[in-house]
Amino acid sequence: MLTLRLTFLWGRYYAHPWGLNPVRLREAEWPPSPWRLLRALAAGWFRAHGGRAPTVEFLALLVSLGEELPEIAVGPVAFSHTIHWQPNFGAADKDDKAAGTYKRTRHENHFAATASPVIFRWTNVALSEEQRSLLDAILSHISYLGRAESLCVVDSPRDGALPTEGWCRACSSNGRPIRRIAENCRDLFCPDPQDFQAADLWSRRAGRDRLDPNNAPPHLVEDLLSNQPLPDGARWVSYQMPEGWPGRWVVRTPKSSRKQTATSPTPRVARYLRFSLQCRIPIPLKFTVPLAEEFRKHALRYFGRANSFALSGHEPPDDIQGEHQQAFYLPLASNRIRFDLLDELHVWCPYGFTQAEVEALMHVGRLNWGGGKHPVRPVLLAIGKTVPDESTICIGQTSSRCWRSVTPFVPPRYFYRGNLHGAKLKAKDSPEQQLAQCLRHAGIDTACEIRRLTCNGSAQHFLPPMADWDIVRAPADDEDAYGVTVAAAVHVPSASAKSANGEKARRIGLFFEVSFDAPIRLPMPALGHSAHFGLGVFAPSSIAPSRAPSFATSRTTGTDLRRRT
Prior knowledge:
The chain is 17% helix and 27% strand. By secondary structure, the protein is of the alpha+beta class. The termini are far apart.
């Protein structure tokens, strides 16, 4: 058995079905077609062996993969698109051309957004060690699948548990693959197991014998445009999608389960939403709060009716019990290796969202950050009433003795007097004491030790990349009191936004590691000032990235959360 795993680094897959005019496209190809994967393998080999003719071993490897239609495992997916306007000088009339004025042509760029890897499995393919080595060398040269925006890593896991559900299988009749019209089937372009040759991936058979072996053949797509619509050795095959398709696998807005009347309370249909942040360039961690504020602002604008406590946190209803019941907007990184680059937004509301509030969140189509030159498009990946166990945020589903800062903790109250030049630390309002109070307010009454992460020694501890934040220049005679502190953008309430200046919109933040006597679960994903906008996020040490700069260390400050009489 051979297994290939495709991981999309940006959580999106751009591709349109083979031979389909993009103008007529209404949805991206899903799952990725076996023909496209084989062409990617061929491209990887030619990329690694520039200017060389394919070897016999390589051709035999492709043939073995093309003679069997693989099973494909997929996870939840959301379909979306971006819109681009292309200048079109040819469509302008005579007067516009004379004035150098262009018409614009609208293009829709459809993609599938998914956070799960896609797995191809060939049950009857058994490779020798030489073929395995050849395949591994090819996989390292595949950097995308489909369009160039679909950044992808392909590997061949030799062990490990495979998914038990989510498998798509080719439809067949009398042992031959067929096409079938059904709601639970999707057509994919595949190699024909009965008539496939490796060279079909890059050239037509007609006239192949007359090709000069010292020159590259004409591009397959250009050759097909003037001859035939489909390449040799390929055919359309219907794949039966997983059980429960599309309801369980395509992420859509939930519908209310009961009919509403004028006097009945509106049911809350979801508490958790997960969005993929689609952007052409990576989003640095320092834009956490501005990005969360922008998303909330647009959601409130789309809601556009009476006050929504879940979205805004204002005017709590009578049935509210406890604090922090409104929505948390948490931009985070899904890639634990590059945790300093934001690519997801998690929205969690203990109180819950109504149908109208969910629709307002899903209507947010564009976020501007860093001056708006590279807008962000949020795409829904998951929605539910509970937070999945595999989610990046931790809300009562993960136990750990050690918790570490992912984003800086900003004390709710100022812990220094005046400005930093001549600042005087308040002993009772030290950041450690304020973090302990935040933990007690969250219902945690277990003894712990709070350590501030600094950069003044040799011990190795997790510390987020300091280049993402503006370092606070502490007074020279009070270096120990401040340690590593950063000036982080924080949320400014709308009531004081008019009078707020740049200094009020930025507060001092610190990074902590909290060790408890016994494993505990955090009931809130973030603590401190601007916790509802992504600051003060803590994660278990087993989940939080362990990569640490060589200069990171810690200064220990013991704090007991147990109340003393």
